[in-house]
Amino acid sequence: MRSKIWAAAFLAGTMLCTPAFAQSSGASATGASGLLDQRVVKLEKEMKAVQRSVFPGGTPVQPDIVGNTGPTIPSGNAASTPIADLTSRIESLEKGLASLTGQVEQNGYRGRQADEAIKRLETRIATLEGPVSTASSDGPAATSSAAPAPATALARPVPAPAKPPVAKADPAHRAAVAAVEMPSTGDAAEDDYTYGYRLYLAKLYPEAEAKLKEFVAKYPTHKRYSYAQNLLGRAYFDEGKPALASVAFYDNYQKAPKGERAAESLTWLGQSLTKLKKPADACKVYDELQDVYGARLAPDLKAKAAKGRADAKCSA
Asked: Most buried of the four, 155, 224, 259, 268, by CB within 10 Å?
């Protein structure tokens, strides 16, 4: 906008010079007037070019000032003073035009820099968001700003490829699964969680894991989500699969840090990493537990964390 106002002001000044020049052209200095006339015409062309750059496709801002409409009464030497004044004004306009042209070029350069910066930023955002969007698509709804957030950047454990489960078709196993009662209270979500919990208590870990995975995928915002995700990790851990357990515990903490079992999942995550012979990572987890939950930890979790730090040989 400032560039447009400058351009309008210079253009108005140019138009003011034309009447003054017309009045002085009747003076005796005809040769000087002719040279000034050429400079005025050249200046007007340059000003129009700058105007097209500043106001592409639009109407230029009209100046608020206007020239004298009355006759000009020269003072001093009538043959030289008007020409000298006009020459001075034209020189001033030429300097202003050069300054305006430089400013237009500088603005164009800054615009190109801004466009390049935006393109670089868009490329960086696309690179960062690519792998994150799919990882978080199955998580629960975003928690409130008051929810505790990770204090450090814990890395998500990456388990080894799981082997296909071996079907247990023996009659004893089928009978054990059939003996676990599926509740029917009218609350489908609560019944699904309770059934998964009962399968876990019966140490039917593959069936419990399948039911709990189904629950967390189906009810990501349910009040039992944190319970189910933590219990899924417990089932993997008790079955002797600490790598899968560590992923389940990590996801519970990251996706629902305000959940009922988020802090407990961190203690189990530390134990899983210790079993995986990653004591340094386990110590980071226990540090995270203290930083995020601190004094709010229940006594049993404090005792479990203290034992976990000792097992991992964490520094005090």
From this structure: 268
Residue 287 sits at the vertex; the CA angle it makes with 286 and 288, to the nearest 5 degrees, is 90
CA atoms within 13 A on the CB side of 143: 20
The b/e string for 126-155 (b: 16+ C-beta within 10 A; e otherwise) is: eeeeeeeeeeeeeebeeeeeeebeeeeebe
- From first to last of its 316 residues, what are the pLDDT tens digits of the chain? 444 434 444 444 444 444 444 444 444 455 666 676 677 777 777 777 766 665 555 555 444 434 444 444 444 454 456 677 677 777 777 777 777 777 767 777 777 776 776 676 666 555 544 433 323 333 333 333 334 555 555 777 766 555 555 555 689 999 999 999 999 999 999 999 999 999 999 999 999 999 999 999 999 999 999 999 999 999 999 999 999 999 999 999 999 999 999 999 999 999 999 999 999 999 999 999 999 998 899 999 999 999 999 999 998 7
- Residues 262 and 285: their CA atoms lie apart, in Å, by 12
Q: What is the DSSP letter of 27?
A: S
pTM for the whole structure = 0.51
Helices within the chain (DSSP H only): 2-24, 30-54, 81-136, 171-179, 188-201, 205-218, 225-238, 242-255, 262-275, 279-292, 299-312
Cα 144 from Cα 151, distance rounded (Å): 16
Tokens encoding 144: 């409130």
DSSP assignment letter at 162: P
Q: Is 74 left (phi over 0), alpha (psi -120 to 50) or beta?
A: beta
